[in-house]
User: What shape does this take?
Amino acid sequence: MSHKQVSQKNGSLVNGTNGHSNGYGNGTNGLSNGYGNRYKNGFTDGHHVEHGHSDFMKIQRYQDLIGSTPMVDITSLANPKVPGVKVLGKCEFLNPGFSMKDRIVKNIFDKAEQTGLLKPGGTVVAASSGNTGAAVAMLAAMRGYNAVITTSPKCSEEKVASIKAYGAKLIMSPPGVSEDHPESYMNMAKKLARENEGWFDVNQYDNLDNPEGHYRTLGPEIWEQTVGRVTHFVAGGSTGGTITGTGKFLKGKNSNIQCVLADPMGSIFHEYFMSQKLTKPKKFLVEGVGKGSIPGCMDFGVIDDVIQVTDKQSFQTCHQLARKEGLMVGGSAGLNTWAAIQLANQLEEPGVVVTVLCDLGVKYLSKVYNETWLQENNISYGIN
Ligand SMILES: Cc1ncc(COP(=O)(O)O)c(C=O)c1O
Assistant: This one.
């Protein structure tokens, strides 16, 4: 089969599911599956001798593969009232550090290097629920920085181990401290940056280069992959970077696009959106989303609605994604997908609901996909 035929086959496969080509990667390698940059380096057609040398020369470093993730159709989990409703998931777990946080850390590092805040051999400190920590540790390793990551005991053992695997130093906050406590993981990072001259604080919660990272990459990719047909964007929030940056970009393209925050039951965002009142957070198990304070990166002006989701709904949706669609993703991806499905099921007219499959399920094998841990938390497997 010629290269052209392969391209057409891939194109028609995507067309068959989405009803339209998603506009990514065409022209570069003929694959319309959203892998634009990733396979630009010639692996797909490297066997053509006449292109061999230049394709070989285009092979990139791992950090250059951040972004340009594929989008998949997960409508099979929904039960829409009307025809023409699609639920699409952005495969952010296919980023090099296995989460969407690679995008923001790359943008934050690039900016800090340009402005001289981050100098060769310098030290980077970051507070994180795990994924930003892994992305910081990974990029610091590749760019020759020292990395110090603070996190809380809620961080899964897999995420803790991977941060250390990249060579970063990990500091765990004491158990049970609230976000405003001096020893919370967020305040510990700030203190370390204050006390150690020259250390660069990633400060993902207030650093506007975080939402900008999504404004520059995730938003445009969603717009292009749906050929501008996206009607709803659904994402959970912690720093608010994803929903704010992506939402701003999409609304700039089409102000009718609705941005919906998926919020774990127990997080304060829902009540703050409804009444502008700050409440006390309650315990929930999903990692990486929901908060007990309002970060500087979260812009509620972009958010049209908030859907609350329980731990059980989040984790059982993860089980469904794994067993129906082969997508083994983290708890926040389950939370996002559950909210996206509710929204899709309520639509009265055709629509394209896009959500984010934030990170890889392997980061939570000891929790979300561990029957003992689920039982301890009174959650049954969503699908057998
Ligand atoms: C797994 C996971 N999902 C979702 C989010 C929320 O993203 P954001 O901080 O952009 O609001 C995070 C952030 O830490 C995360 O780690």
The chain has a mean pLDDT of 89. Residues 3-60 form one domain. The longest helix spans residues 3-18.
